[in-house]
Amino acid sequence: MADLDRADVLRLIDAAAPDSPMVLSLGGITREMLAVAGRKGNHFISLDAMGQTVSVALGLALGLDRRAAAGKVIAIEGDGSLLMGLSVLSTVGHLKPGRLVVYVLDNGVYLATGGQPTASADTDFVAVAAACGWRGARDVRTADELAAATAWALTTEGPVLVRVRITTAQIPAGFCLEDPVILAEDFRRWLRAVTAAGPVASGDPNTRRGGRAVQGHSAFLSAGHPEMRRERDGRALSRADDGNRDPGLLAGRPGGCDGGPR
Amino acid sequence: MIVEEPGETDQQVLQRRSAAVIAGIEAIDPDHVLHLASSTLKIILSHFIDGPGAKPGRRVFAMPREEEGVAIAAGLELAGARPVLIFQDNGIGNLLTALLTLSQPYHLPLLAVVSRRGGLGEYNSMIHTISERTPALLDAAGVRWFQLDVRTPVSRWAAEIERAWAFARATHRPVFVLVNLMGS
To answer: Measured between beta carbons, which residues in chain B are less than 8 angstroms from residue A85?
Structure first.
């Protein structure tokens, strides 16, 4: 039985990893992330390409493996989309990108299209990931478990997978009508700025942790998860002081992904 | 028609054309080579998997499906890497959705070296049913492609592959190079 709503989970992940490249799956994950966090430079929004979220994140993690400043690469995927490209769990397990963290938000249905059931109820994603050679995987159902799993995932050598059982509750969220070219370029510009500022790491790229972002995670975690506590207390999360947003890059975007929290 | 290979056996043609493709890809110097199994690509894949092309700093790995490779390459491209995909044309159908919902609309360059099947010299009685339609499928999808076959001197193949890489980046989109390794 899940007691987590998708929007709350997205808030928590965004707050926990504000400096990490993040690939968002299509549909409700993208729309609700935009609603709770607004347009952010570190979010790569996939408007379609169902089944390929983890693959894009895998490519990012591999491509950034010599850029310490890039930190963890996070994919936020749904159960239905993951099942459409499940083979990537094997590819990830084989390549073992140390930066990769995958969240699977599992509500058991294709919610964006009307709630048709997926096969996830009989699929143990954690066991599959482990069997494919991932370095770790956890199954979480509560806010406390999510907080603990996030603390673990952001400070543990990847690849790691966190399956989050969520409800089918949705929040009001508009469509993202942004031009994909702009989505890609915004993300690239953010990534260039971040990686240009950081050192090129040495040694085996698959056995390193991201320096800057991991420090950020550590600060977040050592503070006792204030964002998570706020979420559990039911209080609104202010994004006014979010240092990750670059108004110069993202101001004035029209449509359903124009930047502001909703 | 330009025929550079008079008197050569099919195997000799395969070896010479494969060497040209290898030279073209090596001229690009990709840091990631993603491949999918193909008997006609065996010489080329062997070069990168466990031959001289298996260099330090270069990742060479199999993609279980072409669409997964397209998406991994998209992430690599966003990260500033230099990926090349190698597979055969009967997998074109697998990748169209990923290509047309990710690489193409997001303007992410991608170079795919795709071996032709189903033509003269083919030994599979079925594969032509999709392979013959590869150009039509790519045209319908609006994917830019070039073909290297007997009409292009093998001595030009490597340079053409290198130009296709540059063209993909200059035009911010996927570009496919269809290579006929089987002798026609």
So the answer is: 65, 67-68, 71
Q: Helix or strand or coil: residue A132?
A: coil
Q: List the 89-118 stretch of B: residues with Cβ below 8 A of A.
A: 97-98, 101-102, 105-108
Domains of chain B: which residue ranges? Answer: 10-179
Distance of CA A2 to the CA centre of its chain: 19
Test the A interface: residue of B60, B67, B82, B106 with most A CBs within 10 Å: B106
Q: Residue A165 belongs to a domain with what CATH number?
A: 3.40.50.970
Per-residue b or e along A158-184, where b marks 16 or more CB atoms closer than 10 Å to that residue's CB: bbbbbbbbbbeebeebeebebebeebb
Token pair recorded at residue B64: 């279980």
Please check whether residue A97 touches B, CB under 8 A: no
Q: Does a structural domain hold residue A148?
A: yes
Domain count, chain A: 1
A-B interface: how many C-beta pairs under 8 angstroms? 106
Residue of A nearest to B31 (CA): A63
Q: Which CATH number fits domain B10-179: 3.30.930.10, 3.40.50.2300, 3.40.50.970, 2.60.40.730?
A: 3.40.50.970
Q: Tens digits of per-residue pLDDT, A196-250?
A: 866 555 443 333 322 222 233 333 333 333 333 333 333 332 333 333 333 333 4
Rounded to two decimals, the pTM is 0.86
Its ipTM equals 0.95
Question: Using CA atoms, how far apart are residues A67 and A64, in angstroms rounded to an integer?
Answer: 5
Q: Which residue has the tokens 């070069």?
A: B47
Interface probe for A, chosen from B31, B33, B70, B78 (most Cβ of A below 10 Å), is B78
Each residue of B104-121: pLDDT tens digit? 999 999 999 999 998 888
